[in-house]
Amino acid sequence: MDFFQLKAVVRKLQAMSDVGLNYITLGQPLSTLSGGECQRIKLASELHKKGSIYVMDEPTTGLHMSDIDHLLGITNRLVDAGNTVIVIEHNLDVISQANWIIDMGPDGGSKGGQVVFEGTPSQIIHAEQSKSPVKKSV
């Protein structure tokens, strides 16, 4: 980023750095990147937008804890910019950061599909039907 002067180039490189991809080299073929890296490139292209709705399905799968913290920072940045982020997730660190939780259950598969709770993370500890492990962490 220090090398380039054009604001458009610097802005795109900054977005790549913001999503934790500052180690990728210019001209590196996409075929050499993992699925997660490709997802973060897509996310980097969205960081400047406002008023969008994003749905993330288990975005923490396979991520190291430090990468999860980074993902939470990006998610918060999207929300702070006026976007809506819907996350389907089991990771307690991510769930506890939510503004609103919709807990589906009471179990998985054919024993699920019912809304057993909706509310804030601090309210879930009082939800009798919820089996969410968030209740133990809040």
Could you describe the 3D structure shown?
By secondary structure, the chain is α+β, with helices and mostly antiparallel strands. The chain has a domain at 1-48. 35% of the residues lie in helices and 15% in strands. It is built from five helices and four strands, in the order ααβαβαββα. The chain has a two-stranded parallel sheet. A two-stranded antiparallel sheet has the order 3-4. Strand 3 and strand 4 (114-119) form a beta hairpin. Helix 1 (7-18) packs across helix 2.
Tell me, briefly, the overall form: elongated
Computed Rg: 18 Å
Pattern of helices and strands: HHEHEHEEH
| Poorly predicted sequence stretches spanning 5 or more consecutive residues | none
Can you list the strand order of the major beta sheet? 1-2
Layout of strands and helices, then pairs:
Layout: H1 7-18, H2 35-46, E1 53-57, H3 65-80, E2 84-88, H4 92-95, E3 101-105, E4 114-119, H5 134-137
Parallel strand pairs: 1-2
Antiparallel strand pairs: 3-4
Helix pairs in contact: 1-2
